[in-house]
Design brief:
Shape: flat
Number of strands: 29
Organism: Acipenser oxyrinchus oxyrinchus
Family: Belongs to the fibulin family.
Pfam families: cEGF, EGF, EGF_CA, Fibulin_C, Sushi
Bound molecules: calcium ion
Structural class: alpha+beta
Strand content: 35-45%
CATH class of the domain at 291-422: Mainly Beta
Main location: secreted
Helix content: 10-25%
Distance between the termini: 108 Å
CATH architecture of the domain at 291-422: Sandwich
Number of helices: 5
CATH superfamily of the domain at 291-422: Cadherins
GO molecular function, one term: calcium ion binding
Largest sheet: 6 strands, mixed
Length: 427
């Protein structure tokens, strides 16, 4: 507004000067007025330029700030998720920064513990997750107890007659030590230099309200709670002044009085198998087996040539179904303890000599087939391998097949049926 007013004034000024020729201002006065106006205009012009410069400066500043922010945005990695039941440490997603992950108690981290925002604007490693730790994996329950996994803990469901966190206490021995008076004795006291000193027999410790009694030391409880090397391979029974180890049925105590040894019922004729049956000794017991040959069908029949072997009867001429059926089926029985380490070769199947140009070994089926695999140990031998730990008691079966081939045509097939008896205990 101010500028426009000044311009109008300048345009009308000559008219004013010319119309007041006689009595108006002298030339000097006019010149002085013009100088004043010129000075005013210069001042206005300077102020105007100054404000333009300031505005330009502010615009530059704003532009720089925005540019910096945009370029920063391009130098970050995508936001990372916090794993369930876990935490993420570090929130900066700029290039070069690290983020760490950890899990809550009872969970284990699977994936990368640390991830770095890389130049490529992507994170190093894999997005981790928290997996519940299986506290039962180490089989903490003793004496036939069943382990139930829970978050950050396990619970043992004890077999009858056992109690405690690990089913380590024989209910019977605990009960006797608490109620049977034979578990306490009188101390041996002597008066020495004015004070009474009492001692207990070996296996007892001083107890009672006024230390007037010797109470049996429960070795079983003490060792189990400390989780020291097993005092007994199976069960511990506390006795007055001592303890003894016991074994489950089917086992006898070894000479070291702590380990258990299987009773061979077959060798010691303690079995009740009939004459037609074969006695198979197992850890903790025995089995009576009588394998059967497959039933005759489609002109294919088998004859039992021994207790553990069936041979195919001669085939009718040009009967393909018969000639392609297994030439022989043999039966094998193995006994293992529970929870054996793997891999473990259990059985070998060999050809006496090579017929045809190649031999092939494979697994046909059987109960618990997933626990096995087959590998070749030499040109004529295939091996049945136990590939996963098995907790007993269990019975597994595998059918191992050996095929003789000539130019990819089957010449003959042989089958070995292997039955594995796995005991309840790891001894
Ligand atoms: Ca004792
Ligand atoms: Ca046995």
């Amino acid at each position: 507004m101010e500028c426009r007013f000044l311009l109008i004034w300048i345009i009308y000024l000559p008219q004013v000067t010319s119309s007041t020729k006689q009595d108006c201002l002298s030339k000097r006065q006019a010149l002085s007025s013009l100088r004043q106006i010129q000075k005013l205009l210069s001042g206005q012009e300077a102020a105007y330029l100054q404000s333009l410069r300031t505005m330009n400066k502010k615009l530059n500043l704003l532009q720089n700030t925005l540019t910096r922010q945009v370029s920063k945005l391009n130098e970050t990695c995508p936001k990372l998720e916090v794993p369930n039941n876990g935490r993420k440490l570090g929130s900066i997603s700029a290039v070069g920064h690290e983020v760490h992950f950890l899990c809550e108690k009872g969970f284990e981290l699977v994936g990368s513990e640390t991830r770095v925002c890389q130049e490529s604007h992507s994170w190093s490693g894999q997005q981790p997750f928290c997996r519940n730790i299986n506290e039962c994996a180490k089989s903490p329950c003793l004496n036939g107890g069943t382990c139930v996994d829970d978050v950050n803990r396990f619970v043992c469901m004890c077999a009858r007659g056992w109690s405690g966190t690990y089913c380590q206490n024989s209910v019977y021995s605990y009960w006797t030590s608490q109620t049977n008076s034979s578990f306490s004795r009188q101390p041996h006291c002597a008066n020495m230099q004015g004070s009474t000193q009492c001692t207990c027999d070996e296996g007892f410790q001083i107890a009672g309200r006024d230390n007037s009694l010797c109470q049996d030391f429960d070795e079983c409880e003490l060792y189990y709670l400390g989780r020291l090397p097993r005092l007994c391979a199976h069960a511990c029974v506390n006795t007055p002044g001592s303890y003894r180890c016991t074994c489950p049925p089917g086992y006898s105590l070894r000479g070291d009085q702590r380990n258990c040894k299987d009773v061979d019922e077959c060798a010691s004729r303690q079995h009740n198998c009939s004459r037609d049956e074969l006695c198979v000794n197992t850890f903790g017991g025995f089995q009576c087996v009588q394998p059967d040959c497959p039933r005759a069908r489609q002109n294919t029949s088998y004859v039992k040539t021994s207790l553990l072997r069936c041979e195919r009867s001669p085939c009718p001429v040009d009967n393909k179904a018969c000639t392609q059926a297994a030439s022989s089926i043999s039966f094998s029985y193995l006994s293992l303890v529970s929870n054996l380490s793997v891999p473990r070769v259990l059985f070998r199947m060999s050809a006496a000599r090579m017929h045809g140009d190649s031999l092939r070994f494979g697994l046909l089926g059987g109960q618990g087939r997933s626990h096995f695999s087959v590998q070749r140990s030499d040109r004529l031998t295939g091996e049945l391998v136990l590939v996963s730990r098995v907790l007993g008691p269990a019975v597994l079966e595998a059918e191992l097949e050996m095929t003789e081939l000539e130019k990819r045509t089957v010449l003959a097939r042989f089958i070995s049926k292997v039955t594995v008896f796995i005991s309840q205990y790891d001894f």
